[in-house]
Design a protein that fits this description.
Elements lengths: L3 E3 L6 H10 L3 E3 L1 H18 L25 H12 L3 E4 L2 H15 L8 H13 L2 E2 L2 E3 L8 H11 L4 E3 L5 E3 H7 L11 H6 L3 H31 L9 H5 L4 H14 L3 H4 L13 H4 L1 H23 L7 E2 L5 E2 L7 H29 L22 H17 L21 H32 L7 H11 L12 H13 L1 H10 L4
Parallel strand pairs: 1-2
Antiparallel strand pairs: 3-5, 4-6, 6-7, 8-9
Helix pairs in contact: 1-4, 1-9, 3-6, 4-5, 4-9, 9-11, 9-14, 9-15, 9-17, 11-14, 14-15, 15-16, 15-17, 16-17, 17-18, 17-19, 18-20
């Protein structure tokens, strides 16, 4: 795995994932060191002035009117970190905290924040040592940055608070830093504020979510293809010329995937003759490209927003290119909050249509000759009846999670911060939504595979057969009722890891 070099330009989404999840080594580039040094010179020159400068020689937020003398400024910067490290609730996942730290480091490297090089290097050292600050879920309003989460990370750099090591062991930050020979940072002017005033938590979760959703939408196409085939549907509605009549790019990609997945299907060929009286399939089958495609287009928009934010330097005040130190509002998380909410809507709808396809597979009145609930002996056995209940419960939850967080705002800091984005909350619920979508798609794939087995002696398409074989490597085929939860979990693992799609792509080539 190549090292991730942090320069003055943006890190890529792939680099964020590599550091957050795979532990890629981080290095600070020479250009970044030079840019950091240059902006630090600006801050140190202002620190000597008697005129107040926000974040350098004043208090913060509603307390910005107080001038802070030089003797108290280190205390001021440490104090803002300690007081803002007020997070509460369940622990935030390690991958999110690592992404957050990397993205704060990336902004420090732009030379627009005024920190010292040794402060930036402390973040490099923590990331490479596998030390992850303990961060509580609650504490960010998505404006003035992700204050509490970022403050907990800055606190660890100071040798305070708690961290987890590579093994997951929780210990005091001072002890962990000493064990790795990392010198705690004593913050200078402007640094405490620079370490907490960013959208890095929201952005990190958006980047990870985009990465995950891209894979899940391929899995959604696969599960839909398996259901279409198992329900004796048709791929005629997915033809490229029909998609061209409504040229949304995501729709075209999804339809092309469905055509490739269903190519050469003996099951589908078995009912193409004149004796077939079905004119068109139900919406959950026929409109899969429209729904999955709209989700893809929403994702593409979110990815563009993420790329813009990755190329941004978020701080307040900011050191401008021409050497001024200026207050601004770039820490407001609205651009991220909107797309995080938008993605939650797309995720909920993709899960909803998948659940409808599953229900159709189980209903003897609609599944075209399959046994009720795909049970071995309906009445004695329940088959996948309750697996659909699990899907329904998740889909209902996803609909609630699709309620936008970004339309809410709550004033803070004595009405100085009187409008906030709630982008952190939008990101947190999107993570839960993606987990739910993976589970819903797992149930659909597992149910469709069972239905395809029950179509024997007819066999599925080569691609969908590869998916069935992948599932069957861990989950037995149709039979009497057995403990279903482990089978769902096994299918979920294959869906979220990408293994199920990879098995299919060995036949089709890369899916779109």
């Amino acid at each position: 795995m190549p090292d991730v070099v942090i320069g003055v330009g943006p890190v890529s989404p792939e680099q964020v994932v590599a550091v957050a999840r795979d532990g890629a080594v981080v290095r600070l580039g020479r250009e970044a060191v030079a840019a950091i040094d240059k902006s630090r010179d600006v801050i140190e020159s202002l620190a000597e002035e008697t005129q107040p400068h926000y974040g350098v020689s004043t208090g913060f937020g509603a307390l910005a009117t107080r001038f802070i003398p030089a003797a108290l400024r280190s205390q001021l910067q440490a104090g803002v970190v300690r007081s803002h490290a007020a997070g509460s609730g369940p622990e935030v996942e390690s991958e999110v905290v690592r992404a957050l730290m990397l993205l704060r480091l990336s902004t420090l490297a732009t030379g627009r924040t005024g920190v010292r090089v040794e402060t930036a290097r402390a973040y490099v050292q923590l990331l490479n040592a596998g030390l992850t600050p303990v961060v509580g879920e609650y504490g960010s309003l998505g404006c003035s940055g992700d204050l509490a989460p970022l403050a907990h990370c800055a606190l660890a750099v100071m040798g305070e608070g708690e961290v987890r090591d590579r093994t997951g062991h929780r210990l005091p930050a001072a002890e962990a830093l000493a064990a790795h020979r990392i010198e705690p940072v004593v913050l200078a002017e402007k640094e405490g504020l620079a370490l907490i005033n960013g959208t890095d938590g929201m952005l990190g979760m958006l980047v990870l979510a985009c990465h995950d959703l891209r894979g899940l939408l391929r899995a959604a196409d696969l599960a839909a293809a398996m259901s279409v085939e198992a329900l004796l549907g048709t791929d005629a509605a997915f033809a490229a010329d029909l998609q061209a009549l409504r040229p949304h790019p995501g729709q075209a990609d999804s339809a092309a995937n469905l055509v490739a997945l269903l190519a050469g299907s003996p099951i589908m060929a078995s009912h193409r003759g004149p004796e077939c009286t079905r004119v068109q399939d139900a919406y959950s089958l026929r409109c899969a490209p429209q729904v999955h495609g709209a989700a893809r287009d929403t994702l593409a928009h979110a990815e563009r927003v993420a790329l813009t934010e990755l190329a941004s330097a978020i701080d307040n005040p900011v050191v401008t290119v021409d050497g001024r130190v200026v207050s601004n509002g770039n820490f407001h998380g609205a651009p991220l909050a909107y797309v995080l909410d938008f993605l939650a809507i797309a995720v909920a709808d993709a899960a909803s249509i998948a659940e409808r396809r599953t229900d159709r597979l189980l209903d003897v009145a609609r599944n075209h000759g399959l046994p009720a609930f795909l049970a071995a002996d309906p009445g004695v056995d329940s088959g996948h009846m309750i697996a659909q209940y699990t899907q329904a419960a998740i889909v209902s939850e996803l609909k609630r999670l699709a309620t936008p967080a970004s339309v809410d705002s709550i004033p803070s800091s004595a009405m100085q911060e009187d409008h906030v984005s709630m982008g952190w909350s939008a990101a947190r619920k999107l993570r839960r939504s993606l987990d739910g979508l993976g589970r819903v798609l797992a149930v659909e794939a597992l149910t469709a595979a069972r239905a395809l087995d029950l179509r024997a002696p007819l066999t599925p398409a080569p691609a969908t057969a590869a998916a069935v074989a992948g599932l069957r490597s861990e989950v037995p085929g149709p039979g009497a009722d057995r403990h279903l939860a482990p089978e769902i979990e096994s299918a979920r693992s294959q869906v979220i890891s990408g293994a199920l799609v990879a098995a299919v792509e060995s036949v089709t080539g890369p899916l779109r």
